[in-house]
Design goal:
The complex is a heterodimer.
Chain A lengths: L1 E4 L9 H5 L5 E4 L2 E5 L10 H5 L5 E3 L11 H6 L5 H6 L14 H7 L1
Antiparallel strand pairs in A: 1-4, 2-3
Chain B lengths: L8 E2 L7 E10 L3 H12 L4 E4 L14 E3 L9 H10 L8 H20 L16 E3 H14 L3 E3 L4 E6 L5 E7 L6 E11 L19 H8 L4 E2 L6 E6 L14 E3 L15 H8 L4 E4 L5 H10 L1 H8 L10 E9 L6 E2 L13 E3 L7 H4 L7 H25 L8 E2 L15 H12 L2 H5 L3 H20 L8 H23 L22 E5 L5 E5 L3
Parallel strand pairs in B: 2-3, 2-9, 3-6, 9-16
Antiparallel strand pairs in B: 1-17, 4-5, 7-8, 7-17, 8-9, 10-15, 10-18, 11-14, 12-13, 13-14, 18-19
Helix pairs in contact in B: 1-4, 1-10, 3-10, 5-14, 11-14, 13-14
Classes of the chains: A alpha+beta, B alpha+beta.
């Protein structure tokens, strides 16, 4: 579930409020959005992909909230790690061109 | 069959602050919905697409990766591809539909390449088009829809269909999820592309998929096919949402004490996993993957590794607990019955595409998701969009006709007490999640569940209408409940084991039941037979 909106990274662009398919966030005038309905989060990680600042973190725990530490996530290079893995963001190339599913489908 | 199941109320002029008038309304913005919208726009239709979430991230495909049933027409490959799943699907698929889906998928994947989807390139320099990465695919589809002139309403769940006095579908109403502002779209035809129903199981991307379109369609008299093929469960780490069964082909499965569960597997040994999970935890480790496979996996599905990397777990060397999450008709094959090659439903003006429609025509009683479903989404979406555009054009757009609201459960009701939607959702989940009820079905257990589900429906129909804050949730809850009853009524009628439908007391396929089961209705649910062509 979504666990973190980094106040220091967030620019208040509210892209996550728009991009979240289950409407988990609420915009707040003049500040970062808030996670208003965490229980509706489906742990799909899409908000992370659409956040241009790598300010969001979705913990893998799908059924219940967990505690996260922004400092630890930063040190572990986990903020923005999924966006990097799919090659989204300025100066990156989509990794869809390196999708080796065809090898796996042949072997499965 | 085909009878309407609602007490229509006229649409007043003040019904919505936001009013739209278009040729084709597409409800749902996943692969099927976006293909439908683009296809309708290409035929000159004015198109509006309303998504419950955000078109581009919504649905089962966007956060995932999917294989595609993309098969070279040269040589014997297509014959082999058709044959390989025919028996697995209980011989309910139809050759002509498989052929046309393979043809249309071939063409649409070529179209995606021309639009710039970055397909991987093999050593021979040729693109490999047998899979799509969800985020990239759906970002591209949104962009192409907008470029085609499609108007997209995000966070705009539809609540009910509109019909004219003859019962022809002519639009929908809904509300914006964030502003609660109501909207009304009058349309010459409507495409339902709302996906299947996964009962809010938190399977990857599936919580927007609550069967809303099925409910709306049933209210105007549309019927279903194959609703007994609705008990797909996806394998995932127990704590996670990522249901990506393909990679578990390289897994071994273990008891808690470390002993191997002999015969357990992702493809053919999944029943054993479901059985074991009824009494104890099951663990997996991807220990059959060599270094080459591991590297391919990482590049193929970055999302598969998120739950592991973020928990400091190495799935190749460490055992982790697994679960089976219900994916219902998302990766089942049942859905709205397709009444024509243009993906018309049995109701004039209403079309269906993707997982909202039955996929029995190409994969019968079984699909593992991906592959066939992905091919079906882009083919049926393409046809439904074209069909709806043609219907809107030939049927005329009669602005003067009387327009009636078709929504029932949760929107209408004479009682004074409101429904507790969360309690209703949990009550439905308690009947459809348990493996001992839904994975392994038995007549008396199905009856037992149905007695409670029918009582819940009767109570819901008596309850007070939901207020604006709760309207969307109320319709989701009603849709889950309706879905569970079509599922179990159909499951009860199929007294055999075929495809994913397993009856404990009828453990084999019965040749005399090689037919489809149609169903429909809301207050009274009916089931009937249809021959396979």
């Amino acid at each position: 579930m979504i666990e973190l909106i980094s106040a220091s990274r967030c620019t208040g662009c509210n892209i996550c409020v728009t991009a979240c398919p289950t409407n988990v966030f609420d915009a707040v005038p003049g500040g970062p959005p808030v996670v208003a309905r965490q229980g509706d989060c489906q742990t799909c990680f899409m908000c992370e992909l659409y956040c241009p600042e790598d300010a969001l973190f979705v913990a893998p725990s799908a059924d219940q909230p967990v505690q996260v530490s922004e400092e630890a996530l930063r040190q572990g290079a986990l903020l923005g790690s999924y966006r990097k893995a799919v090659g989204w963001g300025r100066g990156r190339t989509s990794t869809a061109s390196g999708d080796f599913s065809y090898h796996l489908l042949q072997r499965a | 069959m085909g009878s309407r199941d609602f007490n229509p109320t006229p649409l007043s002029n003040a019904a919505g602050a936001q009013q739209h008038d278009v040729d084709v309304l597409v409800i749902g913005g996943g692969p099927a919905g976006t293909w439908a919208a683009i296809s309708a726009a290409a035929r000159g239709a004015r198109v509006l697409l309303a998504d419950k979430g955000y078109c581009g991230t919504s649905g089962a495909t966007a956060p995932s990766g999917t294989g595609v049933w993309y098969v070279d027409p040269q040589g014997t490959r297509r014959e082999e591809a058709k044959a390989s799943r025919y028996d697995l699907g209980g011989r309910l698929a139809e050759q002509a539909w498989m052929d046309r889906v393979l043809d249309q998928t071939w063409a649409n994947m070529q179209q995606l390449a021309e639009w710039g989807y970055p397909f991987p390139v093999g050593e021979d320099g040729e693109q490999r088009r047998t899979s799509l990465q969800g985020p990239e695919y759906m970002r591209l589809m949104r962009k192409r829809a907008k470029e085609a002139g499609v108007r997209i309403l995000d966070h705009s769940p539809a609540l009910e269909l509109l019909v004219d006095e003859e019962g022809t579908v002519c639009g929908a109403t809904g509300q914006h999820r964030q502003t609660l502002e109501p909207w009304v779209v009058r349309a010459g035809a409507v495409v339902i592309a709302t996906g299947g129903c996964a009962f809010l199981s938190r399977a990857l991307g599936c919580n927007v998929l609550t069967g809303d379109g099925h409910l709306m369609a049933a209210e105007v008299g549309a019927d279903f096919s194959g609703m007994e093929f609705s008990n797909a469960y996806g394998l995932s780490a127990a704590f996670a949402s990522v249901t990506k069964s393909l990679f578990y082909q390289w897994a071994s499965f273990y008891y808690e004490d470390g002993g191997v569960i002999e015969g357990a597997g992702s493809a053919f040994g999944r029943s054993l996993i479901a059985k074991t999970l009824q009494t104890q935890r099951v663990f997996a480790r991807l220990d059959k993957a060599d270094d080459q496979i591991k590297a391919w996996m990482r590049a193929a599905q970055p999302n598969f590794f998120l739950p592991f990397d973020r928990n400091g777990l190495d799935p190749f060397t460490q055992r982790f607990p697994v679960t089976l999450r219900l994916e219902g008709t998302v990766r089942g094959t049942g859905g709205l019955r397709i009444a024509g090659q243009d993906c018309a439903t049995s109701v004039p003006g209403l079309y269906a595409a993707g997982d909202a429609a039955t996929r029995e025509l190409i994969c019968g009683a079984f699909t593992g998701g991906g592959s066939h479903n992905a091919a079906w989404a882009l083919s049926s979406g393409f046809w439904a969009g074209a069909g709806a555009a043609g219907f809107a054009r030939s049927n005329g757009h009669r602005a003067s006709r009387a327009v009636l609201r078709a929504g029932g459960a949760g929107l209408q009701g004479t009682g004074s007490e409101r429904t507790d939607n969360e309690a209703l959702i949990q009550a439905v989940q308690a009947e459809v999640f348990p493996y001992e009820r839904n994975w392994f079905r038995r007549g008396d257990v199905l009856q037992d569940s149905l007695s409670r589900l029918d009582a819940l429906w009767a109570r819901l129909r008596q309850a007070a209408p939901a207020d604006r804050q709760q309207a969307v949730r109320a319709r989701e809850a009603a849709a889950l409940l309706a879905h569970s009853r079509w599922m179990y009524r159909s499951a009860l009628a199929r007294k055999e084991t075929r495809g994913m439908h397993r009856r404990q007391e009828h453990g084999t396929a019965d040749p005399s039941q090689r037919h489809r089961l149609l169903s429909g209705g809301l207050d009274e649910i009916w089931v009937s037979r249809e021959a396979v062509a």
